[in-house]
Design goal:
476 residues, alpha+beta, OB fold (Dihydrolipoamide Acetyltransferase, E2P), 2 domains, eight-stranded mixed sheet, five-stranded mixed beta barrel, 15 helices, globular, RNA-binding
Length: 476
RNA sequence: UCCUCAGUAGCUCAGCCGGUUAGAGCACAUGACUGUUAAUCAUGGGGUCGCAGGUUCGAGCCCUGCCUGAGGAGCCA
């Protein structure tokens, strides 16, 4: 008989239907009740075993992790926690799971321990929930942009441009590192390398996306990016996924409108499509927070927090205004900030948190930062001091989006690159966009894992990507 | 990279002031029980106390270095 997925089967009215299900044992209680999961839903199906009708040898092989094929009939459950259950008529063990060796137990495991067994943690309800939502968000991102007619551009993963200044890069080479060829100056001779020059993994697809926007008007990238920064935080990965839309004829306001609309669309999509997963994750988060001191706890449960974010318009204000607010805050007057507030400085985490969590208590978009602390490609304002940048700050995770209106004026861009020591020769192709039919345009970058963090209520970014890469960790 | 904390059984953790043979719960094995919801009860096996040095009559405990993990900071998405 054909297999029925547990997700479908749980929708049925139990009327003694004959069914076949397959899945993995979560628990086997009382020698009678198998909790079976097949990954089609985070819910388990209860299989009822009449232990007098099956050989003891067979039942002894059923442990947490054992994969089974069950044929039986679907009946109303006598127990309290489920509507229906399957009375087993035949049990076939598809794969044994040696109980002494299998690390997953029917109990709470720490996330740190599960990270060490990332190849098995996918089998837990927590990670099924997280990665099902991750999957949904990836789909929803494409849907959002495709519905608007944006063209998906595949930016290269290996690149020879190292001028973006977005962070330390991973080098890509086929040279024998034990015998590196050198030129007459004693430098590495990259002409003998695979590409005939030095190559790296990309840190951003933005510059390539700009090339696309100069043709299609509206494009986006969605791919992996790599940063070799020695960052050891719950918000950074060496390999992460980024969404980078780039739009011709958009100014900074259009850019912010799009970013806000996108984030709200994605959060709403999650709420609509993953209620069970969110419910489970919310419960998980509440229990995690019981361990924390009162003042570090989230003020809002996960689902409420997500709903709140889509209801309220994000707070928009300039960097300069934000500095004023911080300077006049009672926090500052009581000298509670570790870093003194002063126009021109980059905002520290404590300042961003104050604005988002204390002052406005909702997502905040900051604009028009001092040019000294922002990238070379951002459009300069008339005041000569600031650029058309915008950062979207979210409660709990800080910067989720960074974007800007780009400098479309050739002379100003050229001059800025010179000032910041960026090679105009190597970047000729980027400058060409401003030489040949330049237009005002804007774009932003969304860190996919930070979005997943926010939507799942997880607290460490290593738990929202299946196989995290961080300094000193490249397992699996 | 910097600061703080941690590393003891498969997992989560206790281990007093440095003192005999290092403990508990869960997991696992065996048995009992059989409508359970992380079943329950009984019994049992299970340890290079992160690694390397040092102090001491004696170190899981004190000191030094290193490794790993977590939290915070920086860099950022």
């Amino acid at each position: 008989m054909k297999r029925t997925k547990i997700k479908d089967l749980l929708q049925w009215e139990p009327q003694n239907q004959e069914v076949t299900v397959m899945g993995w044992t979560r628990t086997f209680r009382n020698n009678q009740f198998i909790s079976l999961n097949d990954g089609s839903t985070i819910q388990n199906l209860q299989i009822v075993v009449d232990y007098t009708k099956f050989p003891e040898e067979l039942l002894k092989r059923i442990h947490t992790g054992t994969s089974l094929k069950i044929e039986g009939i679907l009946v109303p459950s006598q127990g309290k926690n489920q509507k229906s259950e399957v009375l087993a008529q035949s049990i076939e063990i598809l794969g044994d799971c040696p109980a002494e060796e299998y690390p997953l137990q029917p109990k709470k495991h720490s996330l740190e321990f599960l990270r060490e067994i990332a190849h098995l943690r996918l089998r837990t309800t927590t990670f099924q929930s997280v990665f099902r939502i991750r999957n949904g968000l990836a789909f929803a991102i494409h849907q959002f942009f495709q519905n608007k007619g944006f063209v998906y551009i595949h930016s290269p993963i290996i690149t020879s441009s190292d001028a973006e200044g977005a962070g330390e890069m991973f080098q890509v080479t086929t040279l024998d590192l034990n015998n590196v060829p050198k030129d007459e100056n004693g430098k590495v001779d990259y002409s003998q390398d695979f590409f005939g020059k030095a190559a790296n993994l990309t840190v951003s697809g933005q510059l390539e996306a700009e090339l696309g926007a100069m043709s299609f008007s509206e494009v986006y990238t969605f791919g992996p990016t790599f940063r070799a920064e020695n960052s050891n935080t719950p918000r950074h990965l060496a390999e992460f996924w980024m969404i980078e839309p780039e739009m011709a004829f958009y100014d900074l306001n259009d850019n912010m409108d799009l970013a806000e609309e996108m984030l709200k669309y994605l959060i709403e999509y999650t709420l609509k499509n993953y209620p069970e997963e969110l419910q489970f994750l919310q419960q998980r988060q509440l229990e995690e927070e019981k361990q924390k001191p009162q003042n570090e706890r989230n003020t809002m449960p996960l689902i409420e927090k997500l709903e709140f974010c889509i209801k309220e318009p994000f707070e928009r204000l300039s960097y300069t205004k934000a500095i004023e607010i911080l300077e006049n805050s009672s926090y500052n007057k009581k000298k509670k900030f570790q870093f003194p507030v002063k126009w021109g400085m980059d905002l520290q985490t404590e300042h961003e948190r104050y604005l988002v969590e204390k002052e406005f208590q909702k997502p905040v978009i900051l604009t028009d930062y001092p040019k000294e602390i922002k990238a070379f490609y951002m459009r300069q304002n008339e005041d000569g001091k600031t650029v058309r940048a915008m950062d979207i700050l979210f409660p709990g995770i800080g910067e989720i989006i960074g974007g800007s209106q780009r400098e479309e004026r050739y002379e100003l861009l050229y001059q800025r690159m010179k000032e910041m020591n960026i090679s105009t020769e190597e970047m000729y192709w980027y400058l060409d966009t401003r030489r040949f039919g330049t237009v005002p345009h804007s774009g932003f970058g969304l860190g996919f894992e930070r979005l997943v963090l926010f939507c799942t209520g997880m607290s460490n970014i290593r738990d929202v990507i299946p196989f995290p890469r961080t300094p000193k960790n490249c397992a699996f």
